[in-house]
Specification:
InterPro entries: BaiN-like, BaiN-like_dom_sf, FAD/NAD-bd_sf, RsdA/BaiN/AoA(So)-like_dom, RsdA/BaiN/AoA(So)_Rossmann. The protein is built from 13 helices and 19 strands. With 421 residues, the protein is of the alpha+beta class. The two termini are 26 Å apart. The chain binds flavin-adenine dinucleotide (FAD).
């Protein structure tokens, strides 16, 4: 596969974007060399959606773009060229039946991310994609195309190179920033990277005592103290306490709306989202009247998970042994306020390695939005998470990978005069 008369397009990275791009290119008759450093292709794809792969969102393009907090305009052409419906049609045609769940999240009926990854791998192989297990170490302009250098297999010449190396999160899956280094070596700016969709560290030490506690039905509200305490996020869902702070679906979603600035945000957990403050007042009063001789801590057992009782007692300032009928009106009000608004202070995100997604990457101002080709470097494309685009949870990030990869493939097919997409 060294320099020859019909050199293949080289796709660097066999994750969601690279595999999908290779499938599109090979379907159009273009020879493809896919170079992936892991022995297994699509390692990150296989752990998406807790192993179930939320591969897209059943929404229109406008809604999709609303779920991309930064640089959403850049994705306008991509999502219109390859929509969420196109993703569903594509995988269904590959023999992966899909289902739609809460929040319009689309999963394979099998609940198996492996099925999604295997479908792409098998398609790529069946369509003749050459797969090389090696690490690309450099990409340099050469002879009207690019020289792709590898750690163990020598150099390859390619008229087009698609960089699909991912971001910086979950580096154990292979995405450890090589794409950013290739870009920097080619004088392409890379914006600062930070974690997104990430667990949060909080200041309150009592959080540790709640480690392992999962609240399935709580509302998390995040207020921005730099913006007059305006709520930047408020949603009902599931939240998990950890040894460092909070995690779980609600927290990951909230982080997409935040900057990594310790102390900037106040988190409030509504432990009783189904009751208004007034209804909760009445409920507490009723419990007191029905159980006048119960200790305060026993009274709380009817209202809270066991693990929370000690913490709520301590935060309310009411002694655990105080009898229910001795509670003052002010103490009842304090309890109500605590249950409706358990306060936490944001102390920062966990490290980027633990993030679902990397915020930041190759500066999209250098990239043609209609093709993902670098403006000043014909034949060089960046697709997927290596770019400075990221979405909220809900299948939007894999859709970004597919839509951007599609555009690169379409452009290359047109350039090589191959069968159009
Ligand atoms: C735990 C977890 C769960 C997620 N769940 C979802 C979900 O349900 N839905 C959703 O939409 N998004 C989800 N995401 C995000 C989604 O997985 C990513 O956005 C997506 O995988 C990005 O695709 P990519 O192809 O750009 O990068 P990756 O999937 O990271 O693939 C990059 C590939 O390039 C390879 N590579 C890197 N450098 C080199 C090199 N120098 N040479 C050769 N190969 C190289 C890597 O080994 C890797 O295989 C999840 C992420 C994580 C971490």
């Amino acid at each position: 596969m060294k320099k020859n008369s019909a050199p293949p397009t080289v796709v660097v990275g066999g994750g969601a974007a690279g595999l999908f791009c290779a499938c599109q290119l090979s379907a159009g008759g273009v020879p493809v060399l896919l170079i992936e450093k892991n022995a297994q292709l699509g390692r990150k794809l296989r752990i998406t959606g807790k192993g179930r792969c939320n591969l897209t969102n059943d929404c229109d393009s406008e809604t999709f773009l609303k779920n991309v907090p930064r640089n959403w305009r850049f994705l306008y052409s991509a999502i219109n060229a390859f929509s969420t419906q196109d993703t569903k049609d594509y995988f269904t045609a590959l023999g992966v039946p899909l289902k739609t769940e809460r929040g319009a999240r689309v999963f394979p009926v099998s609940d198996s991310a492996h099925q999604v990854a295997d479908a792409l791998v098998q398609t790529a192989r069946a369509q003749g994609v050459t797969i090389l297990q090696d690490r690309v170490t450099a990409i340099a302009p050469a002879d009207g195309g690019y020289r792709v250098e590898t750690a163990a297999s020598g150099d390859f010449f390619a008229p087009q190179v698609v960089v699909a190396t991912g971001g910086l999160s979950y580096p154990q899956t292979g995405s450890d920033g090589d794409g950013h280094r290739f870009a920097a070596a080619l004088d392409l700016p890379v914006t600062a990277c930070s974690p997104s969709l990430i667990p949060m560290v909080v200041k309150e030490p009592w959080c540790k005592n709640l480690m392992g506690l999962s609240l399935r039905n709580a509302t998390l509200t995040v207020r921005d103290t730099q913006k007059k305490d305006r709520p930047v996020f408020s949603q009902l869902g599931e939240l998990l306490f950890t040894h460092f702070g909070v995690s779980g679906p609600l927290v990951l979603s909230a982080s997409g709306h935040m900057e990594d600035v310790p102390g900037r945000y106040r988190l409030q957990i509504d432990l009783k989202p189904g009751l208004t403050a007034q209804q909760l007042d009445r409920r507490i009063l009723r419990d007191v009247e029905e159980n006048p001789n119960k200790n305060f801590s026993n009274l709380l057992a009817g209202l809270l998970p066991q693990k929370l009782i000690g913490t709520v007692c301590a935060l309310s300032g009411v002694p655990a042994t105080e009898k229910a009928n001795q509670l003052t009106r002010a103490q009842r009000a304090a309890l109500r306020d605590l249950l409706k608004c358990l306060p936490l202070t944001f102390a920062g995100f966990r490290p980027i390695a633990e993030a679902i997604i990397t915020r930041g990457g190759v500066d999209v101002r250098q990239v043609q939005p209609g093709s993902m080709q670098i403006k000043e470097r014909p034949g060089l494309y960046f697709v997927g998470e290596v770019l400075d685009v990221d979405g909220y949870t809900g299948g939007f990030n894999l859709q970004i990978a597919f839509s951007t990869a599609y555009l690169a493939a379409r452009d290359i097919l047109a350039k090589r005069g191959a069968g159009g997409l």
